[in-house]
């Protein structure tokens, strides 16, 4: 909603589609289909363009809301439904997948088996319609309408007049139906199936609908506008394959060469084109060329492909940026605050803990990059952490590669940790099946990178004896300790108790005698994010005391906690009573800040 | 090199290829080609598999180094060379792009024009060979051999015996040559062209070569192993298109359905398959099926496609992660250190400066995501920064969208800044052409995000008057200033002079009276990275003084510089002579550290 005075900027994508529309609106070639009277009534000037991205952005111009009948564009969607109902093997027994190179109205049955050559010609489409599950013609039609509604993202209805017209003039299709029955491709009375075919062709759609339907195929079967699944992802490749090789009849080769997107046209003037993973296009303009394809539709798709570089085979390499970040514990650590001695161990030996932050879609190619990097540099690695926070999807071949990583590193006694793997449940299922009884032991899954890092760091520190190295922090002398101890107030907290609330006025510095605390902030999502964990011998709460700002985060006792508190007033008073001790105290504070600042700067340089 | 005791881990990808090889080695179907005696000598047990990623990783197993003749697999590469020499239009006049659905040895000329239907059948391949530029047969052959060498990444040679055999038995191909001459598809004596065709078919390759050649097509024409361009990227889509629709003859539809990768087979038993942007596959096994395709080759490609999810149309959505990071100057700033007052302005009004850190390949689809986000939220934006540091490639349609962003925001008086755009020279060229005289003014290109941010911040601060808000830093009282001033030593530096060297012992704190300094570190690349810039009224060098560590970075005078220096010894002495002043001084130090720490923590939380 634009409530400000500044105008909303029109999208350059929409601008471009409008120019394209304008440039082709005057194109006068082609003839409106006349084989049924209803189609002949179409206005040859109708012309709509709609582009929908696989992320759900819709750009439409011209007569993009003008209803017309879907006609042959129904074929790939019906084929997809037949695949879902019967599986690939059975469907292939009934309908082939070879292009015929023939015209759109050719019958093209295999002379020996009677199997239609492919599902994009009428015979194959009728055979596919015959494979749709349902006890009665009504239930079958209902399923068809529901499925098409999922693709379009709205309930669609039949154009009854066109449907009747189709039925009255559909002698050729009835002949096909009987031929298919003759060859047992259809196994019962073929007429209800032919009628279903007439109906599927008479579904009323708009150019916008076609764009969304195409984008649903581009988005692996999930309508990108509604988020609903219209077809199982595994069958999308088969639907697009037959569109690619047979969708444009005897123009398929040239279309593939010049446009390079699986497509399907309809005799009412619609065309859909799909760029898998990226976008769908719907164009509508009734005048057709001699091959039965919309003249403006073809021209617009060619221009779109050329101008927007949409050709399927015109794609740069993937995989180069699956690894978003690669760090080790020598340069990047968990938020658990370490003693100077521990920090030194991590700095010196932390390169054995290796973190890969992955991103995007994990497939064979993108995951191979990660696995290769891991294996080529596996020798100094003692712990491998794979952070899935920014992984969008994973497929089975990627799971297999990662399983092999877990298995092979386990053989060398090197643990593999996964952070944020909950977003990709396939990985967990795959690992569970493959790892069997060793699943709990070997599939180490952490909610976040931070606890995964901490787990690795703790293991490294436990293995690094002696832990106690010389700390370089300037120590307070005994007299100073006695003086300061007199000022301290003891306080105990139970596990889970809040020690500091965000927004509180800052009044004290806390010295931990026993137990741990964690500093957390609430994220907009409602989740808590841990900023730091402090343990015995450390202090917290200094910053707010120094700059007087209210407490910026919450501090909670992770365990039963014993603290000594030093108030801001006592610190102030110390300057008057024991200035030398106050100087030591402030020097200590400065030293602590420097350590934290150096660590923060180091982590920043790693992340930038 | 493995010099440690631990074994190098074998890659799971190679393990998998070995299993695949083992599973199909015993497959006894098919017959070795016998139409020329030399081919009949092939061992039917020869069997190699090679997979090469578009990033240049090579996995090979079995007889992957066994030489054999390339045969029909030469056709797509020759077609590509013909396209480079003549352009698409001229080539299409001579050779069509429609599949025939016919068998591999069909002649398939268009009955009217004599134009071969496509370049994957012999007639079309001979026509394509006739289009290769060169004055003499020798120069043409030389170019062919050089081009194939670029694809394979090594010099290839002819198998002279096979070549002679081909020539002796090639009557059918001579007949085709004369037919093509008859239709003026070939315009001079056809025999040298037919001989060139025999030679191209007799090029000796290995399965590994085929894998690399296929990967070169997958990598937009750049050999991923050598980095050399074998064919201009713009023609790769056309080569792959004809492979997709015609590469497997009358098996094309089923191949496309089951394997889903553009492919080409040869009668010596080779097959290549290309998954654009991802990988190439080479398989070699001489026994052929009735269609002339390697039996094991087809089976291996089907299995690879199924197991590794390589089907062309089985791809998840792209574009969702083009925006790596989106921040504003309210939460993330340049390394120029600001006064507390300036920092406050940036915190409060910085959300107008919007930074998009982009990544990956910028195409229409991936860039649309960015443009949409910019335009939907453009209203509060005063400055837009696009950081290209992690952009791998850009194409023209992405340039067009970004140009529109620059143009439209310029109309509203909002500058658009580009950081790291030097890695994508196409963008600069595109902008130069489109922006014309306004190029210098509107295409604001910065080496790095940091100076781009600083430029925006400076503009925002300059516009935000009054600049001087109350600073909350605890001031030193007049007496303290007098005392400390007595301890200071004045020092001047010229512009460009080094003030502090990394590794130096830390002896002083610097107070800037006039001028600016920058703190920089040397990156492994040899470039300097700026960590901070300080200006008059600020101090630097405190940290090393506090913790006694050697200087960690270099400090250089950005301008002529006047500084006051306070030595570590004087600070120490101050505690004895004027403890109250030392306390104030340390409190000031603490306060400054807190500010820096808060800023660092804020930036860290944004980046993580």
Describe the structure in your own words.
The structure is a homodimer of 608-residue chains. In chain A, helix 3 (74-94) packs across helix 10 (233-246) and helix 6 (160-169) packs across helix 8 (190-201). Chain A has 608 residues and is α+β, with helices and mostly antiparallel strands. Chain A has a five-stranded antiparallel β-sheet with strand order 2-1-8-7-6. The first copy, chain A, contains 22 helices and 21 strands. The first copy, chain A, is elongated. In chain A, strand 11 (383-394), helix 15 (396-411) and strand 12 form a beta-alpha-beta unit. Helix content of chain A is 44%, strand content 18%. The two termini of chain A are 35 Å apart. The longest helix of chain A is centred in the C-terminal third of the chain and has 29 residues, at 579-607.
Strand order of the largest sheet of chain A: 2-1-8-7-6
For the secondary structure, the number of strands of chain A is 21
Helix content of chain A: 40-55%
Uncertain parts of chain A = 1-5, 467-472
Individual helix count of chain A: 22
The main β sheet of chain A shows up as: 5 strands, antiparallel
Gross geometry of chain A: elongated
Q: What's the gyration radius of chain A in Å?
A: 34 Å
Task: Please indicate the percent range of residues of chain A in DSSP E strands (runs of 2 or more).
Answer: 15-25%
- What distance separates the N and C termini of chain A? 35 Å
Summed over residues and divided by their number, the pLDDT of chain A gives a mean of 90
What is the multimeric organization of the chains shown?
A: homodimer
Judged by helices, strands and strand pairing, the structural class of chain A is alpha+beta
Task: Please report the two chains with the greatest interface, counting residues with C-beta closer than 8 angstroms to the partner's C-beta.
Answer: A-B, 120 and 120 residues
